[in-house]
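Example record

One chain of 114 residues, shown exactly as stored in the release files.
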Amino acid sequence: MELSIAFITLPGGFCTLEELFQMISWAQMNIHEKPIGVLNINGFFNSLLSFIDHAVEQKFITQRAQKILISATIVDELVDKLQAFRFEPDPALSQLKWSLSSSQKQEVGLTFHL
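Predicted structure tokens for this chain:
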């Protein structure tokens, strides 16, 4: 991951989706600040992108977190969007320190809105 400048996901199966969501989760938790894109060839990711829109509407995903994932239907457009990407850390999660040793503990206050 350290040698990557961006992550691009092509159509694939469960393992592909697992890796995509892992990179999105790590970006959301401020483990990395690299752009993440899906190349939406022939609308392959349309249903997934609609699901993410729905999760935002239902407030399970923030609009800020939604911006972590970039999509395009052609390579040149995706590359341009990835190059223009500017990471916006989540203020609630930006205080987490992922380099702490196992003996150190970090307290995190979370608020849930229903």
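Notes: The CA atoms of residues 77 and 97 lie 34 Å apart.
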